[in-house]
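A student in our group prepared the protein record below, which I am reviewing. I have pasted the whole thing underneath without changing anything:
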Amino acid sequence: MNRSISKITVLGDGAWGTSLALVLLWNGHDVTLWGPFRENIEAIRATGVNQFLKGVTLPEELRAEADIVKAVADADLLVLASPSQYMRGTLKALRPCFRKEQHRLLDIAKGIETGSLKRMSEICSEILGESRYAALSGPSHAEEVSRKVPTAVVIASPDIGLAVELQNLFMNEFFRVYTSDDLTGVELGGALKNVYAIACGMIDGMGLGDNPKAALMTRAIAEMSRLGVTLGGRAQTFSGLSGVGDLIVTCMSRHSRNRYVGEELGKGRRIDEIIRSMGMVVAEGVKTSESMYELARKCGVETPVANVIYGILYQGKAPADAVRELMTRRAKHESE
């Protein structure tokens, strides 16, 4: 029998992990924040500020820890907050001190690993074995959550009892949580929308206006749902918070790193130059574009919008040529 959750460790000191650590603290929970860079953890201890979440003063009650063994020793819940392409490394570091009878897992990273094409739950199962696992996704920028802006998300797990337990842990007057048992659909919705946010940013960078952005977002939902159902998700999940909800906020917001990458591409900058200029800030959609392209080919699913974004990022296709290619495809029924 699992004990009730009383102590929580967030594994990943980025903006999103830090914001959710704050939500849990505000709800009265005992929270530790672990990060892989000792210098950042020491800076948090010394100044109460995290360089990855600027403008927010962290309360003294939030413990910052650089030693993963110490960070997880007494925890009941581990929030997996590393970017998706670094998740494997974090889980390998966790493995020697992971206790399946003690630690429940909540993934908040949104991506698909390049090469393996695995979702975060699949990587976790591969490295840690059997566990009580859930994923949190939805339209939720760290910058707004940390300011207590009203936000709604979904927590998914095949163990609906765990999803409900975590729902109660996070819920408050500004952070509303729904539950789902469609783990595959929720994980894919949170990951795939980042690809289309790059496309929407590109439209802004090219100064094309609102019509193409609305068309792109609509067709994005069709592509995400088509691929997601093929991979085992449910179609209605992609009409929910982790699908259309997350797509809207990521495609439209000034906070979106993926939309920023697209905007700079639309202005004519090269992708390698853009990534370098972002430093340690991660735009998940760049790598997810590669994974999505390979997954769609492997499954035989048609994803024309995602394909041209992959072409821009990895094959040197010009944004204007990509738009022309999409607009001149053969005529189709809207359901295709």
Summary: The chain has 15 helices and eight strands. Strands lie at 7-11, 30-34, 63-65, 77-80, 104-107, 132-137, 151-156, 175-180.
